[in-house]
Every structure is written in C-alpha cells, then in structure tokens.
Amino acid sequence: MIFQFQKQFPQLNTYWQRYLPLQKRLDVPAKTKLLDEGVNSQHAIYVEKGCLRTYFNNNGEEKTVQFFFEEEGLSSLDSFINNSPSPFTIETVEPSVVYMLSKKHVLQLLDELTHEPDFLMMFMKITAKRLTHYSGEFISFIRDTPEQRYQRLLEERPHIIQRVSQHYIASYLGVSSVHLSRIKHKLAKGNAHF
User: Fold this and answer.
1) Between β-strands 43-49 and 52-58, what pairing exists: parallel, antiparallel or unpaired?
2) Rounded distance, CA 171 to CA 184, Å?
3) Which residues contact 99 (CB under 8 A, 6 or more apart)?
4) Is 156 within the bounds of a domain?
5) Total domain count for the chain?
6) C or N terminus of the chain, fewer CB within 10 Å?
C-alpha cells in the first residue's frame, strides 16, 4: 500500500486525507484473517497499529512468509492485480488497527497519482525497495543456515523477535520450534564466552 511511504513522500499526505473516509478502519484481535488463501484479494491494507503475517498452508502446516508492522502496507499483490486466488493468508499476529482500501479506490488513487510530477520516480523507488527486500529474503533462504537467518533477524529486525511468538518465527525461518530453541540456546551459549 502506497500510504506507508507518507514520510518519504510528503505529497502523499494530501491523498491520505482525501482517501481516509473511503478506507475501512478495523480494530481487530489477534488471529483475525483479513484475506484467506485461495480468495481473490480486493483490498490494500495499511497497518496503523499491530502486527500481521502472511502464510500459506503446506500439507496442513502453516509456513510464514513475512511480517508487517506499524506504517507498513500490504496486499496479495498478484491476486489484487490479476484477480486471481491469493497464494497466502493475511492474518493479525497481535491486536491490530488496520485500514482497508478497496481495489476500486486503489485504482482511482493510482490514476490520480499519475498526474503528480514525481510519481513515476516515487513509484520506482517504492518498487525497488520492496524488490530488494524480497530478493534479500529469497537469497538468504537459499544461501544461509537457519542459525544465520536467525542471527540476521536479531541484528536487522529485532522487533520481530521481541513481538512475534516463537512458533511463527520458527515457521518463518523454515525450522521447527524445537530447532529454533536449540539455535537460541547455541547463540546464547556462544555469546556467554565474550
């Protein structure tokens, strides 16, 4: 969702104010599904407060793909753009306040934004930032061990470890909760020698 970049692009504030009445504000508890896997995505989501995750079902086991926090936006983009079934579920991890903007209004907003002089560059920067992040995640999943991925989480995004339960983090790293406990113990033991 483009509103997550309000701070970098102040001109978006005008649009946020204009589109705020068209957004549906939801104050929802943890474990609330905002989009089910297999359903066509019809909304862009902006997180005002809380934490969301995306996950898919793999033979009855949930595999967490990503976490989203305050001032971040998301949707099942391929589903949203191509009107196809979403490959994942979007669910709240903790009590959250989110704004949902319908596809109709997102398309209207994008049409209006095309008249902004710097929109193309802004959009390219937003897209590049997202692609860089996801490429890094993909490469790390292939190249790094679970221990290295966990260490990166500790260093680069400690808020995930502080706010998200261990079984979701384990799922995100592609390991069992037991394996994650071993990793944490091993790292704690290693740090104790310094």
Assistant:
1) unpaired
2) 15
3) 3, 20, 23, 24, 25, 26, 45, 46, 48
4) no
5) 1
6) C
